[in-house]
Amino acid sequence: MSDLDIALRGEPDLGEGPTWDVGTGSLVWVDILGSAVHRFDPGPGTDEVTPVPQHVGAAKPRTNGGLVLNLRDGVGLLEASGELRWLVYWAREGMRGNDAAVDPAGRLWAGTMRYDQQPGGGFLARVEPGGQATVVLPAVTISNGIGWSPDERRMYYVDSPTRRIDVFDFETDTGEVTNRRPFTEIGDTDGVPDGLCVDADGCVWVAVHGAAQVRRYTPEGALDRTIDVPARQVTACCFGGSNLADLYVTTAREGFTAAQAEDQPLAGSLFVATGIGGGLPSARFPG
């Protein structure tokens, strides 16, 4: 029996990147290939959809309202009015933005990948609120989950084809990362790690794409909990709700055949496990 309930039944090709917006009490998430930003309000169960002009890998709340978007051609600022302007423009043929996260000091970490998933064809960049961008990891394949430990001394990172979660030493004041090393291997399943989040106890929760699972690992990297998801393409997870105790999980149906769609009718839906843990509030981007 699954711990999950259906929060929103839907059919996005690639639901991704859930982030709880404490200021509005809503969940921001994206449909990457549908070029749409979603805002789900769990009270009435409504989902507001904002189309954007490009494939969008992630959308994160900003301090002064609006969102920062990791788009196909760079990082953009979406105002509450609907106006979109570029903060960083790095368009490269065949590449798009993927997962992103805001660190404790307010910097955006924006990952990219090639549409053809060419090995080493993407990068991970650190973007300051003023628009200065630094490529921190220059040769990644599918840049995915990013998160920080409660004491801000560790940064976790996923390049999905490596089949592991890596960890860096993190310096909050400068945003520097050093001493990259494996945190845990995802080697006993057909799936690969995708999006992740870190809870208040320092445990790392990761969506395992292709395995219909969300897994929790202790700060020492030991698997101590598995949640079954009624969709194989599990993409990301985050904590939300009034007490940050509810785990939201996004899923996808990318590349499904008719038979696969019939076999997994809930694929693409947004799920929630109520009262399952204790999350950390997401930082906002000041830009």
Could you explain the architecture of this structure?
By secondary structure, the chain is mostly beta strands. Helices cover 2% and strands 52% of the residues. It is built from one helix and 24 strands. The relative contact order is 0.18. The mean pLDDT is 95.
List SSEs in N-to-C order. Answer: EEEEEEEEEEEEEEEEEEEEEEEHE
Bin the strand percentage: over 45%
Average pLDDT confidence is 95
The radius of gyration computed from the alpha-carbon positions, rounded to a whole number of angstroms, is 17 Å
Give the helix/strand class.
mainly beta
Shape: globular
- Number of H/I helices: 1
| Number of beta-strand segments | 24
Residue share in helices?
under 10%
Could you list the spans in which at least 5 consecutive residues all have pLDDT below 50?
A: none
> Quaternary status of these chains?
single chain
The main sheet orders its strands as 1-24-23-22
Distance between the termini: 43 Å
